[in-house]
């Protein structure tokens, strides 16, 4: 629910960040005795940013 006094707008513009940089990681754990598996998922955001340092610019 939005906070009091805050109006949420429906936007026809796609959410660029969500569509291109958000995903879901799924982890599984399996028992080696009974071979039963459990699964857990977590959302993640991954944005790669190239950084350059002054030392690298001289090369």
UniProtKB/TrEMBL annotation:
One example GO MF annotation: hydrolase activity
Keywords: Hydrolase
Protein name in UniProt: Ubiquitin carboxylterminal hydrolase 1like
Species assigned in the record: Caligus rogercresseyi
């Amino acid at each position: 629910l939005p906070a009091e006094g805050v109006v949420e707008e429906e936007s026809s513009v796609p959410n660029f960040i969500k569509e291109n940089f958000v995903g879901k990681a799924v982890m599984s754990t399996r028992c080696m005795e009974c071979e039963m598996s459990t699964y857990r998922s977590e959302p993640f955001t991954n944005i790669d940013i190239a950084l350059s340092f002054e030392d690298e610019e001289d090369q």
